[in-house]
Structures
1.
Amino acid sequence: ITMDKYTAKLIARDIGVPTADFIVMHYNMIEDYNTDEDLMGFLSNLGLPVVVKPNDGGSSVGVSIVKQVDELKPAVELAFRESNVVLVEKYIAGAEFAVTVLEGKALPVVEIKPVEGWYDYTNKYTEGKTVYVAPAEIDPALSRLLQVYATRLWQAFDLKGYARVDFLYDGDQAWFLEANTLPGMTSLSLTPMAAKTVGIDFAKLLEIIINNA
């Protein structure tokens, strides 16, 4: 379910977890919306800026933030190179957070702070490009809200073992981005960072994951 971002967002809405407004595009629609003007007409309810992404992609591959009309068509074409279904979301500016849920329990929140730009592929996988704060130094009420949302989504998606749920916070409201049921396990990955904050080292984390497989 979670690999289908569109379906995941529908479920989030259904259980009362806020998520940015969105529209889905299928590849067979591209001939009907082949100019910037056509696309803007189709996306008129969202306006600009928007985030254009493959509906079933990962690691921010094929994702673009579109702020100008002339950026829209190239962004849609890029996303369609990765998937036959493209999700277009209203852009929300704010801080990004990740909550790992391990065996049904939310671990401490991790804040993601790219040094420059947004949390794209380069910033995710290049050491020094992003600062991670674990646990996040945020209002305890916000931290708890993110954990509640993550746990609620975990249950709604009927997940097992472990997963990571990503959010944006615009200063007023937390927004569900997506859930990752196979989050990274490298030295720059968020799940090991979150586990470490509660005394679970990498070896123990792997043991827990294997035992839940």
2.
Amino acid sequence: MYNLRFFLLFFIFDISYFYGNTEKYYFKHLGLEQGLSQSSVLCIMQDHTGFMWFGTKDGLNRYDGNSFKIFQYKYDDPTSLGNNVINSLFEMKNGEIWIGTDAGIYIYNPKSECFSYFSTSSQDGTKITQPVYKITSDSKGNVWIVVESQGIFCLKNKGNKLIHYPIKKPNNVSYLEIDYTNTIWVGYKGEGLYYTNDNFKTFNLFTDSNNINIFADDYVFKIMTDNHNHLYIG
């Protein structure tokens, strides 16, 4: 049984923060004046060294707490980032950062600060070439990738086999989350919330106790789980 929590707001504050809690929180604005390449931030990640990474509609930004370093496409540099629209970020165990762009995946090498294109083909000959909305991993070390119009891909733990799952209505797929039971939840744009616990041998529409698709008209753009295996849908 899954416990679902639905929120309409991006930020949720416990009322105890306002009553009986004297700890203060401070916010610092980081924008164009501080060096950010573009004001539409699509994803945020902190790597294992402490750097903050911000993906925007015009470049990848690395922040060290004081200043930004911007990575963008350069037509005369084959080792530069190949696309400037950054939809998703994921750090691999070896320290590489995988960047989901509007034109596939690019891999950042932190030692050389160079980028390479992920050109691996899946078992059915498909390459990832469309907007990549989510990159994440499961408890077995497999990497899961959500790609607009192409569906879902899984890079097996050893990194030498890419599996393509051509799910229903791939044009509307928007997000993926894996809970602590390794159930895979897939969000759609106006199509609902689906799940599978057998690697897509079955793909089930989530409905409430009255068998109603409560997300039928919603754009599911974010799914998260907490330590109690509650599922949060945005």
3.
Amino acid sequence: MRIDKYLSNSGIGTRKEVKQYIKNGLILLNDKVVLKSTQQVDENKDKIKFKNQEIIYKKYIYLMMNKPQGYISATKDYNDTVLDLLDEKFQNKDIFPVGRLDKDTEGLLILTNDGKLAHELLSPKKKVDKKYYAKVDNILSEEDIDKFKDGIYLEKEQYLTMPAKLEIISNYECYVYIKEGKYHQVKRMLKSCGKEVLYLKRISMGNINLDETLDLGQYRELTEKEIEILKNN
């Protein structure tokens, strides 16, 4: 692997910034100053330092975003995607959103380049709960709770959803817990109960909760503890 890729993948900076660091003699490879950005390194054996601090290579990137409305949960689209919100240092890292939130839905979105973990989180067999907060236009009832418990039939797919949980907060507010991610699933489940969703926000995924200090459109890297929690969901 080229050393500029190694360093940019480790979050030191963009390729352009890394090349400048090398030019300024700030990068050491096995205690020797690196002279070329094309220098090959072995991420498992070589010791790389930046400003005399050893750099630990990050093969995978894990981000938590508070997704705003107006962005598509995709890597490419004619409209704005969630990747457009990322800084340059996270571009071209094969990062993708884990699952999708509708364009007009806000809240927790995990982004990563770890395909195996994404599959584990999205597989219905793993039964990873996704929790949503919803505002609706009609009064919620105990009957709605019972319908969710039994699963709701989705006409388009001719599919009965897995049993879900509806927790009523007020007449027009609720939490929804699902283990799947069918197209517009939460909205369609509530619509089958005679409710139109006016606002929808994902609160958690498994045991990872949205960091409420993140403003809409902001994101941060997951902590080591959070990554471990995700892997053990």
4.
Amino acid sequence: KNDLLSDSIYVQIRSKIISGAWPIGMRLNEKKIADDLFVSRTPVHRALQAIYDEGLLDYSKNWGYFIKVVTKEDIQEIFKIRIALESLAACEAAAKMTEADFAELDKINSDALAAIQNNPNDYHQLYKLSSKFNARINQFCAMPRLRLLQDGIQEYLQHFRTMSFEQNSERRELAVREHQAIVSAMRSRDNTLIYSRVKEHLQHASEYI
């Protein structure tokens, strides 16, 4: 029971950090968090220690835990991982997809462009469609272990994708155009071209964070 409680507290706290509900640099007061969640400080302390071990928090003896500031090195690391995983998924998916599958990706991109035209400031809808685009490629590639790796860092990817879309409205349309270019490369089944398009897309995304 205690382990289940600790896991639940860990998930709740980590979710608030990853989603941005708690801002970068915020001090995490163990007592306040425990009071808000109607639990003792023990599971909160364990959760914060675990999240600190993941590299999401900083710690000061005098002030306790703080939400870690995202550094340039953090951004470079996560985007290198994204390039490796997403280019592999796209190459594997392309080899297995039918024209109907490609048409489905085309439709997602068309819907995304329409969403931008209808409401340029609604990045939430674009984020949903972008996530759907990536999810379908992961499904088409049919590599369960690769999907496990993707799922393992999905919350990190969510955090960085959201930051990229929030920063600049011009980036939103450019991202969709880049998705279209990725689909075009996938249709050609040219793995070198696919890798190049995915890398270009993610490098551009990193510049808006």
